[in-house]
Each structure stands twice: as structure tokens, then as C-alpha cells.
């Protein structure tokens, strides 16, 4: 049986390979640590998912940082799926900062970890569909944060722990008619 770190590494390496993450892009992640350990979303007891969250974060954050992208983590529905990210990203994109600090039972364990790990963390109510890549770990519904048009990534590796993983990426809209020619690198 693979560890959470191994599974997460395989999944995120595949996502990075199948996307064209660029410097300054936003990669949004929604994560239910409860689902990873086999519980129903939001039902784990305090401390029960601490190690899973730590291991997952140690894998994901450096991979996104290596691409020069911003990692944005979606809070749970108790904070209306607000987003945790660096102040620099919020300012660069013109996102409105809101006043809340995520907690395990109001924001989620992964969002709380992200907030505590950033240099200058902020929470924004919305990233206005500006994410270029989105990763959903455990069915937390992150699609509303990805820039239209969202193209699903067909992952070979779809599991971290007990949680299903789905992902999508942004594709520029097609415009034109029957004579239009499209750039294959953007498809």
C-alpha cells in the first residue's frame, strides 16, 4: 500500500505533466482530509487528519511553487468556499480580501494548514474564475474557481488515500467559424 505522500506525488506529477502551469498562474485546490482517511467529509475529530494534511501539503506546495504559480486553497462551505492565498496574488489579481482566519471546523484542515504556512496569508471571497488549474480531492467542488472554459483532466491516478481526485484546467475559448484555425498548444 502506498503512503499518502507517494500517492499525492504521483497524482500531482501527473497533473503538472498534463497541464501547462506558468509563473503567476493560480492553482486552486479543494481538499477533504476526512475523505482521504475514509470518513465522510467534515466528520473527522480534531487532530485525526493532522498527519495526512501535513504529508499532503509537503508534497503539493513545493510542486506548485516550483512552477512559479500561486497555490490557492478553497475553504469548506462554512466559509462559503472562500480562498486562502498569498496577499501578493490577491493584490496582483485585484481580489477583495475578507476578514476571516480559517479553522479546522470552519474552513477545513487543508485551508487552515495553507493559511498557517504562507508568508503573508489572506482570504478572499472569490478568485473570479481566474484559476488555470483546479484539483478536487474528496469531492469538495472547486469548479466555480476555474477560468472558463474548463477541460477535465483524464487522470490515470485518481486516488489519494480513500479520496477520489478529479482535476481540470483552463482552455481559451474557441472563436471563429468553419474557417478558423486553432493553436494546438492551447487546446
What does it look like?
- The longest helix has 17 residues, at 50-66.
- The radius of gyration is 16 Å and the shape is globular.
- Helix content is 28%, strand content 21%.
- Helix 1 (4-18) runs parallel beside helix 3 and helix 3 packs across helix 5 (109-117).
- Strands 1, 2, 3, 4, 5, 6, 7, 8 and 9 form a nine-stranded mixed sheet that branches.
- 44% of the residues are buried.
- The model has no long low-confidence stretch (mean pLDDT 92).
- The protein starts with a helix and ends in a 17-residue tail after the last strand.
- The protein is built from five helices and nine strands, in the order H-E-H-H-E-E-H-E-H-E-E-E-E-E.
- It has a single domain (4-171), classed as Rossmann fold.
- The chain has 187 residues and is an alpha+beta fold.
Question: Quick recap of the structure?
Answer:
The protein is α+β, with helices and mostly antiparallel strands.
